[in-house]
Specification:
The complex is a heterodimer of chains A (206) and B (259). Chain A is built from six helices and ten strands. Chain A has 206 residues and is an alpha+beta fold. In chain A, the strands form two sheets. An eight-stranded mixed sheet of chain A has the order 1-10-9-4-5-6-2-3, with helices on both faces. The N and C termini of chain A lie far apart (47 Å). About 14% of the residues of chain B have low confidence.
Chain lengths: 206, 259
């Protein structure tokens, strides 16, 4: 036990102190073992197992699983954020421009708010206009505190409110396949998004 | 003959403890909130914890079995991998059979955050927040905040080094001033917002919030250098994911305080 704890602590010390946090790429290998023939069968690892309801920037109520069939590129942000989020948003746009129009039909770029209290649909809408993210592929989602915490848990995004208007949070962009299974995650700001783009292209070229 | 009676007696005893274990599901105590300085803060970062109710004991294996019987989607064969990894209830013989070598009154472990969360929800409760848990857990038998006492920290740390403490029955450690048992000594416990501890990949500006705790000179800023035990808990929380099922990680539930 002592040994295990020491290893855990050492690991944490190592990873949390290893200089520039912005250069970490993490790849996950969660492709399903069995290819389901029917497209409406979701696997154990699919985010569509989550029952959560969300509201969009257009004030529409949607169920998460209504997104099934599209490739999802997801990030968690909050609109009053001044530091990292503009860069995360820039990273998302940067990925967006590298996807050809014919692939983009089946891709959704999703920004999930970690601050549902502040980020009303109106506010999300304004944010989308400000950041020129008004085309169909951009989707902003707002849930309640509980579903947001749960969703973050699935994405392995950690966040904490540190003042009424500020959060500290992980910078992770996740790519989900058409069945809602995690295919790839890039972690950090301004990192090389080559693998993320390749993953999206591969998924939408099938 | 006496031996037979003894066997019957001990059997009855075993049954009754199991039954008590189940009936304890509503057994909570009132925790009077207050302001406290968490591990990561300084005096200006006092956190206010509102009054709340907390389970007296960690959830037991027998109680969890009962939950699984009523909620078959949480059996180990039916559970979705996104909600619980392959170690979920790993020691159970099958979906509805506990490992008989360990008492049903020992705390349930090898359960994921999703499982713990849903268990509490099924009881009309919720998981405690990190701040609620830490607030209740800084108490010893006589004091609300025993953290300045090096013996108290020594006690907790000696548990961290004790092998297989998670097989002991609930109630086998001390009762704190609130009437809560086993916050230290048996298992580590899930909290509602365990994923608010940030160790890596933070936004640049806010990167100091937790990282300084764990890095060189920054960690001297931690309020309570003596509280190495709490440091370990935060580090652990920051290193786990919501579908992890760990053999020394259990939970208990909390609830809103009734007025």
């Amino acid at each position: 036990m002592k040994y295990i704890i020491n290893v855990v602590v050492l690991f944490i010390l190592f990873t949390s102190c290893s200089g520039d946090m912005g250069n970490k790429n993490q790849e996950s290998t969660t492709s399903s073992e069995v290819e389901d023939v029917e497209t409406n069968v979701i696997s154990d690892l699919s985010i569509y197992n989550l029952p959560s309801k969300w509201t969009t920037q257009n004030n529409q109520e949607i169920e998460l699983n209504s997104l099934q069939g599209d490739v999802l590129v997801m990030v968690m942000i909050y609109t009053s954020c001044k530091a990292a989020c503009p860069r995360l948003v820039a990273d998302m746009r940067n990925i967006d421009v590298q996807i050809p129009e014919k692939n983009k039909k089946n891709v959704k770029f999703i920004l999930v708010s970690i601050d549902p209290k502040t980020d009303t649909p109106e506010r999300l809408k304004a944010f989308s206009i400000e950041n020129k993210m008004e085309e169909d592929q951009w989707l902003f989602l707002r849930g309640d505190e509980e579903s947001t915490r749960e969703f973050a848990a699935v994405l392995a995004v950690n966040y904490k409110r540190i003042s009424p208007l500020d959060f500290t949070h992980s910078n992770i962009i996740s790519v989900f396949n058409q069945k809602g299974e995690l295919e790839h995650q890039q972690e950090g700001l301004g990192v090389d998004n080559k693998e993320t783009v390749e993953t999206i292209l591969a998924l939408t070229s099938k | 003959m006496a031996l037979v009676f003894r066997i019957i007696y001990s059997f009855l005893l075993l049954i009754s403890t199991t039954v008590i274990g189940v009936s304890q599901s509503d057994n909570m105590v009132y925790i009077k909130g207050g302001a406290y300085v968490p591990l990561y803060g300084n005096d200006s970062s006092r956190v206010v914890v509102n009054d709340f109710l907390l389970d007296i004991y960690p959830v037991t294996r027998a109680e969890y079995l009962n939950f699984v019987k009523n909620n078959p989607e949480w059996t180990k064969s039916a559970v979705k991998r996104i909600f619980a990894d392959g170690n979920y209830l790993i020691s159970w013989k099958d979906d509805y059979t506990l490992n008989q070598k360990i008492s049903g009154s020992a705390p349930i472990t090898n359960v994921s955050w999703f499982a713990a969360k849903n268990y509490c929800k099924a009881q009309g409760k919720r998981l405690p927040t990190i701040d609620e848990w830490e607030f209740a857990a800084m108490a010893d038998e006589t004091r609300i905040d025993a953290r300045p006492d090096s013996l108290y920290n020594q006690y907790i740390l000696s548990w961290y080094e004790t092998p297989k403490a998670f097989n002991k029955e609930i109630g086998s450690t001390f009762k704190n001033i609130w009437g809560v048992y086993d916050l230290h000594g048996l298992v580590w416990e899930w909290t509602q917002d365990f994923n608010s501890v940030l160790l890596s990949g933070e936004s640049r500006k806010d990167v100091d919030a937790d990282r300084n705790l764990f890095c060189g000179s920054g960690s001297i800023g931690a309020t309570d250098l003596m509280n190495y035990a709490a440091f370990m808990r935060y580090a652990f929380r920051g290193s786990i994911k919501a579908n992890y099922s760990v053999k020394n990680l259990g939970f208990r539930c909390a609830n809103k305080a009734q007025k």
